[in-house]
Amino acid sequence: MNCLAYRRAMLEAPLREDDRRAAHAEQCAACRRFGRTVRELEGQLGTALAIEVPRSLSERLDHHAPRHQGRFARLLLPWLIPSLITLVAAALYLPWQHRQELAAAHRRSLQPTLPSQPLSDQALRNALVPFGLELRPPPPSPLTARWIELDGAPALQLRLQHEGRPATVLLFSASPLSSHTGPFVQGGVSGFVSRTEKGSVAVLGLSDAAARRLLARLFGPPAGSP
Asked: What is the pTM of this model?
């Protein structure tokens, strides 16, 4: 402490440093003014620190912590939810679309004219080879075979009568749209789809049991059956 009055008081009164400092501060006007100035500065500094430090450090960190923690979720959700919706819609739509195509093919088969010419018996047997099938003798009569378009790909269509009802047999290569197997009813058309060694075969216009009997009549029992 550089106050001359304080130095003089130290020589005159042998008190402890803290007591001398406190006694002198009460009597010296200059020290009182200096003390008020220091306290004001300390108050202003403390106020500034109390505001700025939390805002620049604690508050900013607290404010940004949830943003950093949820950033991955916010980046992921905008494309994850539409992708899931697209996958679910595709899983539901593709089998439905294929059944629609099968039903439309059956309705076209009932029309009197078709775009392609009927196949001969030998041409029909040759057309069955890529599907790993062979027509059992004697072939049913009347039987009309021709190539048509199904799901944008060629399919072999057989039209015939079975148990007094018109039926359509379609043979086509396996594709994502032909993933459905078993009986189905679509657009008022009942049918049955099964897999062959090298493709799929669908019977339209018959019940499940009648479709199985027709396939056994045309191509024999399925492989592995007694």
From this structure: 0.48
Domain containing residue 185: CATH number: 3.30.200
Q: What is the arrangement of strands in the sheet containing 153-162, beginning at the earlier edge strand?
A: 143-150, 153-162, 165-172, 200-204, 189-195, 182-186
Domain of 196, in residue numbers: 108-219
Quickly count: other Cβ atoms within 10 Å of residue 24's Cβ: 21
* Cβ contacts of 3 within 8 Å, gap of 6 or more: 24, 28, 30, 31
Q: Is residue 21 scored above 50 in pLDDT?
A: yes
Higher pLDDT, 170 or 5: 170
Q: Measured between alpha carbons, how far is 36 from 218 in angstroms, rounded to an integer?
A: 112
CA torsion sign, 25 to 30 to 36 to 39? Answer: negative
What tokens does 144 get?
Answer: 């009309």
3-state percent helix, strand, coil for the chain, nearest multiple of 5: 55, 20, 25
Residue 115 structure tokens: 């775009």
Judge whether 164 lies within some domain.
yes
Residue 176 lies in a domain: yes
Please spell the DSSP secondary structure of 91-138, one letter per residue. HHHHHHHHHHHHHHHHHHHTSS--SSPPPPHHHHHHHHGGGT--PPSS
Query: pLDDT, tens digit, for every residue of 128-165?
Result: 888 888 888 887 878 889 888 776 678 888 999 888 88
186-213 tens-digit pLDDT = 666 677 888 777 778 888 888 888 888 9
pLDDT reading at 169 higher than 60: yes
Residue 145 within a domain: yes
- pLDDT value of residue 58: 47
